[in-house]
Amino acid sequence: MCDYSLHALATRPARVGETLISTTFRGTSTRGFASEKEPAVAVCMLPGTELAFAADVKYDSRWIWTRTVGWRVGKFNQIETQTPDRHHDAIEFPDGSHVLVTQLCQGQRVTVLQLPAGQNDNDRAPKVAGAPSPASIVTS
């Protein structure tokens, strides 16, 4: 999913194994994720998408101070979804804390580790050379 303020932009779904960068999209004040090859295309995620950051996560606290979270892994999630016209996209960390995606400092690299359950098995797990596909495994 992409926050309401990114609906006017070109978007695409996240893919397992890709590295994205946190960015502010031209013509908006909203931050999100994009590929370095397609900086104008917002990459949208479903709640439960697992992410690994290249460094401890940095974010703007109330747009004045930069803070660092002592985590490099998290799950994409949404918060306060009952409140309209507000940013909902967030990263949830192992301790239950969260940071809004729009507060992430620009230029942070994140790798998509896994898509949430219910996605196509071929999209969810990275391909390993020589490993059987889920459809080719037969159990008795």
Write the layout of secondary structure elements.
Elements: E1 11-13, E2 19-24, E3 31-34, E4 42-44, E5 50-53, E6 58-61, E7 65-68, E8 73-78, E9 89-92, E10 98-100, E11 109-114, H1 121-124
Uncertain segments: 121-140
- Overall average pLDDT: 81
How many β-strand stretches? 11
Task: Sketch the major β-sheet.
Answer: 7 strands, antiparallel
Q: Report the structural category.
A: mainly beta
Helicity range: under 10%
Work out the radius of gyration.
16 Å
H/E series: EEEEEEEEEEEH
Description:
The chain is mainly β. The protein has one domain (4-136). It has one helix and eleven strands; from the N terminus they run βββββββββββα. The protein has a seven-stranded antiparallel β-sheet, with no helix packed on it. Strands 1-4 form a two-stranded parallel sheet. The chain has a two-stranded antiparallel ribbon with strand order 6-7. The longest helix is centred in the last third of the chain and has 4 residues, at 121-124. The protein starts with 10 loop residues before the first strand and ends in a 16-residue tail after the last helix. Residues 121-140 have low confidence and may be disordered.
